[in-house]
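Entry 14: structure prediction run for Aminoglycoside phosphotransferase family protein. Input pasted below.
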Amino acid sequence: MKVVDFQLFKKLCVESKLGEIIGVPISISGGLLHKMFAVETNKGKYAIKILNPQIMKRPDAMNNYINSERIANLVSKKVPAAPAKIINGDFILKKDSHFYMVFDWVEGQTLKPAFISCRHSEKIGSLLAAIHRTDFSEINIEEDLENNEQTIDWNYYFHEGQKSNAEWIELMIGNVDKLYEWSSLANKANKLLSSNFVISHRDLDPKNVLWYQDNPVLIDWESAGHVNPMHDLVETALYWSEDETGYVDKERFFAFINGYKKINGEIKADWPTVLENGYLGKLGWLEYNLKRSLWIECTNKEEQMMGTAQVIGTIKEINDYAEKSSKLVDWLDSL
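Run finished. Output tokens:
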């Protein structure tokens, strides 16, 4: 770890009244957007997140992060959640051009797909239902605009990739037309579902749940906001029932759905539309990583390489999602 980084953490801890650092802050593996460090002081142990500077340049970034932590803070009274600490009245702090968030350290570990059981899936399904039932009216979060029509010029990224001989260009050649088709389906579905929203975590996959003695704690609420509840249900059920190859374990999928139903009762939806809406977030994530891979929105070489890897993985993931959507509709119609 660089000396400048240590000095930054030292300043952060002193000014935030977290105490004096013991030892050296340790980089925590994982995280596709930001940097997370474990920091121990004479007052306790904390997780400190250094926010991605490129993302913080976006005009709506600060407000989105503040609102997501307000959501986490309120829902933590109802479900086991880990919101950021409020320091000097703020969730997000700034020091030496860095924006950061501080969390009390949570003991536990994330689960790899091979270790997720039906019991785990059902438990998370119940927690998702509890989040959906939470009354957030007191914090007055306005409906965000992310759910509006998404227009992405896939040909632009394709041509930029050709110029730089991007690693993913061959994969992109066979998928440009499909990307436009999926975008059209997603926008139509999103419009049909736009009259029904709840506030939720919106990224409750296994990497964002820490388990300790079989008890979960929900972390990383930065994506929290408005979402169609059935879209959120299906997407999260897939997170907790897929293996490393993308194969969906039917038993775990229905365990998640049943956990949800135990809290929220019977569920009904236009499932083909719900599944088509599922393309939207994946396509948005693909575009963001195309920008990182092409140095359009990127901080350093490490992030550029991560963007390239994510482009390749996400294109494959979307194709896989398209292939299994009809099977998922059949499963859901049987509920």
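Notes: The CA atoms of residues 70 and 188 lie 31 Å apart. Will compare against the previous run tomorrow.
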